[in-house]
Amino acid sequence: MTQKLRWGIMGSAQIATGSVMPAIAESTSGIIQAIASRDLDKSAAVAAAFGVQQAYGSYEELLADPQVEAVYIPLPNHLHLEWVLRAAEAGKHVLCEKPIALNSREALQMVEACSRAGVHLAEAYMYRHHPRMGQVQAVIASGEIGELRSIRGTFTYNDAEDTSNIRFKSAWGGGSLYDVGCYPLSAARLLCAAEPEAVTVQALFSPEHDHVDMMASGLVEFPGGVSLIFDCGMWAFNRQLLEILGTQGRIELPMPFNAREEDAEFFVYSDSGMRRVDAIGANPYTRQADDFAAAVFGQKPLVEPSDIIRNMTLIETCLASAKQRQRIVMG
User: Fold this and answer.
1) 42: annotated active-site residue
2) Where do the TM regions start and end (predicted)?
3) Which of 67, 118, 227, 288 has the most CB atoms at less than 10 Å from its CB?
């Protein structure tokens, strides 16, 4: 019988009820043991809908449950630090929504706290767990598109009319860089297998939306002259794309950050023409749950916890560049 990781869900946000909880239920390695909300009626209703044994009216009760081995945290960004630290103190493994922190200092605190407690910590970039990403990395490594020259990443949507949205609260970690810019930024680091040297970002900071960055565009410089050109936004037409350019060809990924079973293809262009790759389809949230459990049970994690600090360093530097309106060299 497959070993099962017993999960506690800390909050009833839509990402939890719509994506992560169904994925854990579908996984081969996990079972949802409990769910907590600050509103017991709400958590009880979600528990009933998912057939979860235990509902709590506080996060403290969830962390005190000895049956819960790991927690998933989908809370607003500004609450991540407190509850990651408290979960680590309670001896729980932690999967926390992205962006896991508001800055690299918070990320470092989390990584160190979880290391001291002997618990696994992961940031919920589900797209990394989709098998398509591994296939794309294999094409790059094969030399089919030659030497890597540039990456172009886009992720935009328009939800600007909903001014009450928590993504538009500056003190809560709102803004497009935190919400969607983090995807092409993390993908470029993954595909380049290197850390950036400098960033230059321009952003639209909206007074109507608590002065968060509603749109940002930037250049991220990697070693060897490789660059990421990206844009992200919450006040622009819906679109996603990731293009990887080499000396002999390019790879194009439509829907790079939300692909599942039926839309996992990608395209390789070279002098010999276009090649469509029907990549392995999967629910990335389910793969994320299984990969997380595998790390808890002793396997090498797909992404080391230290990556959390490096990724937050890049995001905070991009935000600083946009606010200062200047190029920032990274140490």
Assistant:
1) no
2) none
3) 288
Count CA atoms within 13 Å of residue 24 on its CB side: 27
* Identified catalytic residue from 4, 42, 92, 98: 98
Residues of the chain with CATH 3.40.50.720: 5-126
DSSP H helical ranges for the chain? 14-15, 21-26, 40-50, 59-64, 80-89, 104-117, 131-142, 176, 182-192, 284-296, 306-324
CATH for the 128-282+304-329 domain, from 2.40.50.100, 3.90.226.10, 3.30.70.100, 3.30.360.10: 3.30.360.10
pLDDT by residue, tens only, the chain of 331 residues: 478 999 999 999 999 999 999 999 999 999 999 999 999 999 999 999 999 999 999 999 999 999 999 999 999 999 999 999 999 999 999 999 999 999 999 999 999 999 999 999 999 999 999 999 999 999 999 999 999 999 999 999 999 999 889 999 999 999 999 999 999 999 999 999 999 999 999 999 999 999 999 999 999 999 999 999 999 999 999 999 999 999 999 999 999 999 999 889 999 999 999 999 999 999 999 999 999 999 999 999 999 999 999 999 999 999 999 999 999 999 8
Q: Which of 148, 98, 157, 168 is nearest to 127 (CA)?
A: 98
User: If one looks up domain 5-126 in CATH, what number appears?
Assistant: 3.40.50.720
CB atoms within 10 A of CB 22: 16
